[in-house]
Specification:
The complex is a heterodimer of chains A (575) and B (280). Chain A has 575 residues and is an alpha/beta fold. Chain A is built from 22 helices and 20 strands. Chain A folds into three domains: 239 residues, Rossmann fold (3-Layer(aba) Sandwich); 65 residues, no CATH class; 235 residues, P-loop containing nucleotide triphosphate hydrolases (Rossmann fold), CATH 3.40.50.300. In chain A, 34% of the residues lie in helices and 21% in strands. Chain B has 280 residues and is mainly alpha-helical. Chain B has two domains: 173 residues, no CATH class; 77 residues, no CATH class. A two-stranded antiparallel sheet of chain B has the order 1-2. The chains are: A alpha/beta (575), B mainly alpha (280).
């Protein structure tokens, strides 16, 4: 007689939930279960309910946030409504988006031990579990460090170790890699696969990182407006390109490429679309031979003397860390320039010099030939506008109009001149109809527009965007990048820092690749994205389209799935 | 100054290696001596010794400068108040003798014209300043040199409830975060072109009031996130927990505790025989 099947680890039974202040439910009538050992990916556009679902698994919703909860949710046989959060923590480990806010102690070792101490485990067992959790995330050599001294990727691995040390059967991760560079993202997802294989831990991962999810999860659940719209093995879900398009999500580039090839009649209907890079590379021989594709870079226009110039810039922090080493570059007027490199490559330090927030140790930065050190930070804002990663930190006022006009209050402009500038900025950013709205009542994309409008009132020629697409879904990221394109078309010089290389081919023209404080490459975007050896030295992973293009033909320099698909001969080979 | 720098001093010294209970003994001895003594020169000597100690253990000079900057107006008020107006009390302390005038305010000054600044009053003001300084410098000397985790364990060993000990250390960590948040918001304003330095004092105050909105929102958000994180790590404030490191008192700790108690006895004796009285 066969043993009865093991009960599911997680069981949702008609679960609906609404936050205290929201009229509409965020989760609607969810019924599904998760078995031990699964890795489940949660996908969906912003506002679909992914984070709320993650919080519900840990009991935080509704125990901490209150609100209206219907149905029953059980994790490891415990009802998440009845079991206190601190006791549920022994069954559910939770890893949130921002690693910094999850660090509660002052030593790596203590961070991992904290939950175990709270559980009252014997000291010998705590030592053993701490050692094994740190070894699992490859941080054992850093156990005496202060957590704030670690890189973003290391911090996220530390938070994961803290969750793993409790040896919960389930670990829930909400956007665990949104602030990490591509190499660290790959590292974290690789770790999940490794721990799942060795310890059998069940993972639920909410993420916009389609490529990594497709390569990691065994099952994918797609949420939209709080409801499940797909729940199937990962390969089935990621191949559903129409569903991704319908929900404004971004399928893996490899899947998108093969979907386009299928539309062109080059990939058989009967053959499934590859959804991992490995599967895509393996499928290349089944395609007709790819052609060389090297459209070259647009001819350089003569744009006169550079608007921004960095001369032999070096910066060493007081602790002795040299973050920039002898950087020299020129940015002409109306350039759209992308800065890339792994976390700690020197991008932020360079930006701070461009904004005159840090004095160079040696060398200088000039704007139209004038050293930046001659400007106050607030004066420089009239030449260089800065849009930070988190626009919420720049919102101080109670209406959009007041926010946009805020900086002008300290200028000598007349009331009429100020009002004219505010009106122009509101009009340019299409915010005029929202002028009376409270900035925090707007969507994240609109809040970013408010900050850009406020920056534009100072009429800067250069706009610097720091990681503007972090935490955005595909639609949100496109909206912000479309805005940068509009501004570029209006004649602004754009400098943008991002880890999301796959978003940039349609926008940036030139790329600065940074690594270990040096400028490794300064080239047109196509050339830079295909300089895979140089990218590897700063742990920047090329996009899937680039890898596939190079594998398809040694002289194929396609950047996007559309370019890549178009570069194959229209003669399908039989499958 | 980054957050971790302020929360805990990284320099390893014999003092920083002491258990917090031994540091607490030093703290109590110094502050009780400062309270008991009324001789300005003794108290200034004590404050100077504590300041040298702070520098020796690696308290960032920027932090010491910040204390000096923030407290300067209060110290000035103390000095002027005692120097000009604390006449009867100081006269009683010096046995009723006439106070020595160092200078007078011009007669024409409204309300305070003709007031005399006495040497004895000024010294009494200096005495009050030195007492405050000793206390203010002992806090970073003992707290910033202690790892917050050790601090929790030491407080629990002193029978402070675990939840309270954790709240104390979390608060210590929270202040630098708040400080960072304020700096970030002010910097964000400047980056948007807002020239605070161009404004009148009243408008500056209005602007800083506006800064309070995102700072408080950010701080509340962080506090809420921290609470969620703590609960997901099984934190309930219960005392029945274990500790990775037990932190038992060492020979050095006991030596410092005994020395502190001896010094405290000495300080009391000095007070009782009148050597620490205010002489003017």
């Amino acid at each position: 007689m066969e043993p009865p099947p093991a009960p599911p680890l997680v069981s949702f039974d008609r679960v609906s939930y609404a936050y205290p202040q929201s009229a509409a439910p965020v989760l609607r009538d969810l019924s599904f279960s998760i078995n031990r050992g699964e890795i489940v990916g949660l996908l969906g556009p912003s506002g679909a309910g992914k984070t709320t679902l993650c919080l519900a698994l840990a009991g935080i919703v509704p125990q901490f946030y209150r609100g209206r909860f219907f149905g029953q949710l059980q994790v490891a046989g415990q009802d998440t409504l009845d079991e206190p959060i601190h006791r549920l923590a022994r069954s559910v480990g939770l890893v949130l988006q921002d690693p910094e806010v999850q660090l509660v102690t002052t030593r790596v070792e203590h961070e991992v031990a904290f939950a175990l101490e709270n559980a009252g485990l014997p000291v010998a067992e705590i030592h053993q579990r701490v050692a094994s959790a740190l070894a699992a995330v490859h941080l054992d050599h850093l156990k005496d460090k202060h957590p704030h001294e670690l890189s973003g990727g290391q911090q996220q691995r530390l938070v994961l170790a803290a969750a793993l040390a409790q040896q919960p059967p389930l670990v829930v991760l909400d956007e665990p890699t949104s602030q990490l560079d591509p190499a660290s993202t790959t590292e974290v997802f690789g770790l999940l696969r490794e721990i799942n294989a060795t310890h059998g831990t069940t993972f639920v991962v909410a993420s916009h990182a389609s490529e990594e999810l497709a390569a990691t999860v065994s099952r994918a659940i797609v949420l939209d407006a709080g409801r499940i719209v797909a729940d199937a093995p990962a390969a089935t879900v990621f191949r559903d390109v129409d569903l991704f398009q319908h929900l404004n999500l971004r399928p893996p580039e490899v899947t998108r490429t093969f979907a386009l090839l299928r539309s062109a009649g080059l990939w058989p209907e009967a053959s499934p679309l590859p959804c991992t890079l490995a599967a895509g590379l393996a499928a290349l021989p089944r395609l007709p031979p790819a052609q060389a594709f090297h459209p070259g870079s647009p001819p350089e226009e003569n744009r006169g003397s550079p608007i921004l110039e960095v001369r032999k810039l070096t910066h060493t922090y007081p602790d002795g860390t040299t973050a920039l080493r002898d950087i020299s570059l020129q940015i002409p007027r109306c350039e759209y320039c992308l800065i890339i490199g792994r976390n700690g490559a020197g991008k932020s330090t360079l930006l701070q010099h461009l904004l005159n927030l840090l004095p160079p140790t040696s060398g200088e930065v000039l704007i139209d030939g004038v050293p930046l050190r001659d400007f106050k930070v607030s004066e420089l804002a009239q030449r260089i506008g800065y849009v930070p990663q988190n626009p919420d930190r720049q919102l101080f006022n109670t209406t959009v109009e007041a926010e946009v006009g805020f900086s002008l209050e300290s200028t000598s402009l007349s009331a009429q001149q100020r009002q004219d500038r505010v009106e122009r900025a509101l009009r340019d950013m299409r915010l005029a109809h929202l002028r009376e709205a409270h900035p925090f009542s707007l969507s994240k994309g609109d809040r970013a527009r408010v900050v850009v409008a406020a920056v534009l009132t100072m009429e800067p020629e250069i706009l610097v965007f720091d990681e503007p697409t972090t935490g955005q879904d595909a639609a949100g990221a496109s909206a912000i990048l479309d805005l940068t394109r509009e501004l570029h078309a209006q004649g602004h010089t754009i400098v943008i820092v991002t880890h999301h290389l796959y978003l940039m081919p349609d926008y940036a023209r030139r790329v600065l690749v940074m690594g270990d404080g040096r400028l490794l490459l300064d080239a047109p975007l196509r050339e830079a994205f295909h300089a895979t050896e140089i990218l590897a030295t700063t742990s920047v992973e090329p996009t899937q389209a680039v890898v596939l293009a190079q594998a398809a033909h040694p002289d194929n320099r396609a950047l996007t799935p559309a370019e890549l698909a178009a570069s194959f001969s229209p003669a399908p080979t039989p499958p | 100054m980054s957050t971790p720098d302020l929360v805990s001093v990284n320099r390893q010294t014999a003092f920083s290696r002491l258990d917090f209970r031994a540091k607490l003994a030093v703290f109590l001895t110094a502050t009780l001596a400062a309270i008991l003594w009324n001789d300005p020169w003794l108290n200034l000597l004590l404050a100077a010794a504590v300041a040298v100690g702070c520098a020796g253990v690696g308290i960032p000079p920027a932090y010491l400068r910040l204390i000096a900057k923030v407290m300067m107006p209060f110290f000035l008020i103390l000095l002027l108040t005692h120097g000009f107006f604390n006449v009867q009390h100081v006269q009683r302390l010096v046995g009723g003798r006439e106070l020595t005038t160092l200078f007078n305010l011009p007669d024409g000054w409204w309300g305070v014209g003709g007031s005399r600044f006495s040497r004895e009053g000024g010294l009494f003001g200096l005495n009050a300043i030195a007492k405050s300084l000793t206390f203010m410098l002992m806090v970073p000397l003992c707290v910033f040199t202690t790892d917050p985790n050790h601090l929790v364990v030491s407080l629990v060993r002193l029978r402070v409830p675990y939840k309270l000990a954790f709240v104390v250390t979390s608060t210590l960590r929270f202040f630098p975060l708040l400080f960072d948040e304020i700096q970030a918001v002010i910097r964000a304003q400047r980056l948007r072109g807002f020239a605070v330095e161009e404004l009148s004092v009243i408008r500056r105050v209005r602007v800083y009031a506006k800064v309070a909105v995102p700072v408080i929102l950010g701080a509340l958000h962080k506090a809420q996130e921290t609470e969620v994180v703590l609960q997901t790590r099984g934190f309930s404030g219960q005392a029945d927990r274990t500790y990775l490191h037990a932190h038992n008192l060492t020979g050095a700790d006991w030596s410092v505790i005994i020395l502190s108690l001896t010094a405290l006895t000495g300080a009391v004796a000095v007070t009782m025989v009148g050597w620490a009285d205010f002489q003017g």
